[in-house]
Structures are given as structure tokens and as C-alpha cells.
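Protein: YbaB/EbfC DNA-binding family protein
Species: Amycolatopsis xylanica
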Amino acid sequence: MTPEEWLANFDAKIADVQAKAAEFQENLEASSASEANQDGSIRVTVAPNGSLTDLHLADSAVQGKSGSKLAEEILKLARKAQRSAAVNVAEAFKPMGADSEAMHMVTGYIPPEEPEEPEPAGQPPERQLFAHEEPEQPRQAPPTPPPPARPRRPRPDDEDDDFGGGSILRRD
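Structure follows.
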């Protein structure tokens, strides 16, 4: 291979990487996600990193619902949108190579899909774990410390044991 051919090949590789990087940036910027409930009265939008960027509540969303039920529905939609955004981010990495280290890292953070079946009444949905997280161990109450020991009273014959029974103020 001549130096000119090598340089032309190198320039082509650089142009390919630049095109992939531009496509990646464009796809990443478009990776936010929105989810709404069935009647459209609640809508959440999350950024590509999963942070909540918009929350829309119609007046009908709060009518006839307890605060905890409304919060539960908002959180469920937010988790669903966060998963969609994570999938979108993974799709944005495709131009970089489907089997790249970056792609494996990103897909490892996609949360699992939530079940579509309704949760039992009165129980909040469990927090979904990301692939890299360990389940939390149940918290246990710290052990109860033993009761404080009673101070020992000095016995009359214990007096001055440290000094051999003699007075330190006396001259010999």
C-alpha cells in the first residue's frame, strides 16, 4: 500500500466515524420519551438520562382519586417512560456498532418491563431494579443494647489499695 492509498483509507475511516458520531448525537438528542395514561389525563416526559422533564395533569386526573393513587399512577408512567428512553438511547448507539463495549454498557442499564396487570389494591408497586443493581436487603432493627451496668460501690477495705494503705501526704 502506498502512502497515498493509506492516507485515503485513513481519511475514509475518519469520515465514517464522524458520520456515525453525528448520527449518534442526533439520535441521542431525540431519545427522550413520553407516556400517558389510558384517558390522557396524565402525561410524563423524561430526558434521555431518565430525569423527569415534564408532567401534565388534567383536572380530570385528580378528581375522584386519592393522592397516593395519583402518585402511584404518575410513578408507573414515569418508570415506563424511563424504560422507553433507555431503549431509545440504546438504539442511538447502534451506529457505533451493535457489539461494541459502549452498546453492552448501555443495554445493561435498561430497566425490565413492568407487568401490565394491575397491582393488588393497597400495595404500592415495587421499585424496578436496573441490571447493575443488587436487590436491597430488608432493613433490620439494630440490636437492643444491654442495660447499663450499675456502678460498683467501693468496699471499705478497697480504700487506698492503690497506694499501699499509706498516706501520700505524710513525711517519712
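Remarks: Residues 3-29 form the longest helix (27 residues).
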